[in-house]
Design a protein that fits this description.
alpha+beta, four-stranded antiparallel β-sheet, 11 helices
Length: 284
């Protein structure tokens, strides 16, 4: 039994020794590509031409001999796969701009989309620290409004500033909501709002007063359609916090209809008490 086992082991060893590893220096017609190995094929042709000599060697003979020795053949057209070429940066940017324009997921008609006013208020470079190092990106904050009381802000990030602005614009359009305005020009009442380290005070003003507020708030007022407003900022004046505080302040207004429901009295009486006889006459 032991002798039979030794014979089996020897036979396996002989079979393993007979199998040789493939010679990677030779050209493989299946795995190797002519275009990728063109420099090697040219070298083979030069060597073959030197061996044959200048008299007996011609270009056609050398090429045929190299093809036969190294099994080099041209692939048929059916096997050639044409990969699409990479687009230039300008073409990719143009495609993204087309895609980032109006679409159905924005939930806004195209006619209203064309009339929107956009304000790019913040564009800055940010860096994220990872274990591989610093990963830079661009940050953008955009405010979009129709000038008739509807507005929203959005934030976006991207490797390029243009892409960040496009992402922020889409986010702003999706976040649009209507904010009430008194006489379509100012806020209904004075507001005090706090957001993180920013404290903001807003006061309603008479017609023709103008918007005497911070520059960032002034841009937002143009998008919303507020013409007369006064304001003051205490604490942090970070533009991102200022914009978010202003939107929260507008959303916290108490409209006369809400006051009438809370107190259980008529809307006409609320308007007469807070806004005078002119408002009552307009309602009648």
């Amino acid at each position: 039994m032991a002798s039979i086992g030794l014979e089996i082991v020897r036979g396996v060893r002989k079979s393993l020794l007979v199998k040789k590893l493939p010679d990677l220096s030779k050209f493989d017609p299946i795995y190797d590509d002519i275009d990728e190995n063109s420099s090697i094929i040219k070298l083979w042709k030069k060597q073959k031409a030197l061996e044959l000599g200048a008299s007996s060697s011609t270009a056609t003979n050398v090429e045929d001999m190299v093809n036969s020795e190294h099994k080099v053949f041209k692939k048929p057209k059916d096997l050639i796969v044409k990969y699409p070429k990479a687009l230039d940066k300008q073409q990719t940017l143009a495609n993204t701009e087309k895609d980032m324009n109006w679409s159905e997921d924005l939930m806004i008609p195209y006619e209203q989309f064309k009339k929107l006013s956009k304000k790019t208020l913040i564009v800055k470079r940010t860096v994220q620290m990872t274990r591989k190092g610093k990963v830079p990106s661009m940050y953008a904050l955009v405010v979009v409004g129709n000038g008739r009381g509807s507005a929203g802000y959005g934030e976006g990030k991207g490797f390029e500033a243009s892409k960040a602005v496009l992402f922020a614009t889409r986010d702003a359009i999706k976040n649009m909501r209507h904010y009430p305005r008194y006489d379509n020009r100012t806020i209904y009442h004075d507001i005090e709002q706090k957001y993180k380290a920013t404290k903001m005070m807003l006061w309603a003003r008479r017609p023709g007063f103008g918007c005497r507020v911070a520059p960032t708030i002034h841009e937002v007022c143009e998008c919303i359609g507020i013409q007369d407003l006064a304001g003051k900022i205490h604490g942090s004046r970070n533009p991102m916090n200022v914009i978010k505080t202003f939107f929260e302040a507008l959303g916290s207004q108490r409209v006369p209809s809400d006051l009438a429901k809370a107190r259980g009295i008529r809307l006409v009486d609320i308007n007469h008490k807070y806004y005078g006889d002119a408002k009552v006459s307009s309602l009648r």
